[in-house]
Amino acid sequence: MSCLWIHSVFIPGFFLLFGFEGFPVISVESQRSTDNITIRQGDTTVIRCYVDDKVSKVAWLNRSNIIFAGEDKWSLDPRVELVTQGQLEYSLRIQKVDVFDEGPYTCSIQTKQQSKTSQVYLIVQVPAIIYKVSEDITVNEGSNVALTCLANGRPDPAITWRLLNPSAEALDVGEYLEISGVVRSQAGRYECKASNDVSTPDVKYVNVVVNYPPYIKDVRSSETAVGQAGVLHCEASAVPQPEFEWYRDERRLSSSQSLTIQVSGSRTVLVVANVTEEDYGNYTCVATNRLGVHNASVFLYKPGMGRDINSAGCICQSLWLLLLCVSSALLQC
């Protein structure tokens, strides 16, 4: 209301003082509610004001600043220009709209009887942009993790999180994602998305690496005849990747003419090139990293002698577990 009062006092004085001739317009009563135009930052907008055949004087104002008086441009902004269609239109075009263009725009009319105005409020929207996001992090299992994703835009963007595992389920909503006592299944690529429906969402990613000690998840024993090559397999899960060692009783094994140890990532293979009677028995696979150690027993056995041991499904982590496995196998005989 105060803005309209200013116009009702300022505009007639303006016309009287400068006495310019303008275009006739279709005027709107000053009591009419203000219309809104919503435009995206960087786009071009045209604020319409139409004329009729009545002789009137017109001007464009932004707040109390004169942009055009008739055809005379008072604004120094090169992005602003008049749009006229003969004597029928007196509209205002603004190119590359920015946030500082937001506000009220008034098409002011001076008739012989009174001054009238048509006012439009320009709303400038800004696409969501993420300006700060957490860096990739590496933590030990059980630690607390806090991720940050900050964004701005007009209107304020909504921020959502997802862990891009196969299900990609939605997580917390908001700038901060907190994980208490992180576990290995929560490792992966986290997606932060900021959206406010002005443009396509802005998306950033944070990689979370969770360290944990080795766990031997699979071993394969070998039933091999004398003179043949026996192959023992061992696979472990760990972050960082584990280092492997092979033992026979208490003796650490190394590659030689009769033995070959192969390591590929999280897997290791022990190859006995030419099996003899002395080679049959229990072998121990040991996986280590800086967070811990895990071991399991693997068997090289003579055909017809070791099936019961394998069928018992035992992975023995120490000598007493090995004895328990053997005892269980003997009881099944």
Automatic annotation (TrEMBL):
Glycoprotein keyword on record: yes
Keyword Disulfide bond: yes
Domain of life: Eukaryota
Keyword tags: Disulfide bond, Glycoprotein, Immunoglobulin domain, Repeat, Signal
Listed InterPro entries: Ig-like_dom, Ig-like_dom_sf, Ig-like_fold, Ig_I-set, Ig_sub, Ig_sub2, IgLON_domain
Protein name per the record: Limbic system-associated membrane protein
Family: Belongs to the immunoglobulin superfamily. IgLON family.
GO cellular component terms listed in the entry, alphabetical order: cell-cell junction; plasma membrane
GO biological-process terms attached to the record: cell-cell adhesion
Signal peptide (residue range): 1-30
Alphabetized GO MF terms: cell adhesion molecule binding
Species for this entry: Danio rerio (Zebrafish)
Residue ranges of every copy of the Ig-like domain listed in the record: 24-118, 127-204, 213-301
